[in-house]
């Protein structure tokens, strides 16, 4: 397998953030207004408020992405982790998740939370392997999420 390269966000990569994530969200759920805002304006909705987005490049192709949304000075939310269909099953989800947790530490984070759904088995296995534990799910945070997890970093 080609070497996987993790790239920081740049405006030129934003279309991949949208295309990769929109594909899986539409496969399993429906696009909500907050999704559309993040897809259309990632710099404004994620980066400027103190978050970040990273990308996985395999060969010459961008095949994965994940973001961090800043919750507070020491807490981040892992958001929009997706891998292109043609690159799934190669361990990219784990690589992206590990890289974004390292990024959260670099940014001063002490805890990372995430919201997900029980039907996303491969993602749940990644989160569990990385030490995420179940947390109390707030009512009405996200329509499609039935699980909240968190990890101290």
From TrEMBL:
<dbReference type="InterPro" id="IPR050769">
    <property type="entry name" value="NAT_camello-type"/>
</dbReference>
<protein>
    <submittedName>
        <fullName>Acetyltransferase (GNAT) family protein</fullName>
    </submittedName>
</protein>
<dbReference type="InterPro" id="IPR016181">
    <property type="entry name" value="Acyl_CoA_acyltransferase"/>
</dbReference>
<dbReference type="InterPro" id="IPR000182">
    <property type="entry name" value="GNAT_dom"/>
</dbReference>
<dbReference type="Pfam" id="PF00583">
    <property type="entry name" value="Acetyltransf_1"/>
</dbReference>
<keyword id="KW-0808">Transferase</keyword>
<dbReference type="GO" id="GO:0008080">
    <property type="term" value="F:N-acetyltransferase activity"/>
</dbReference>
<feature type="domain" description="N-acetyltransferase">
    <location>
        <begin position="4"/>
        <end position="153"/>
    </location>
</feature>
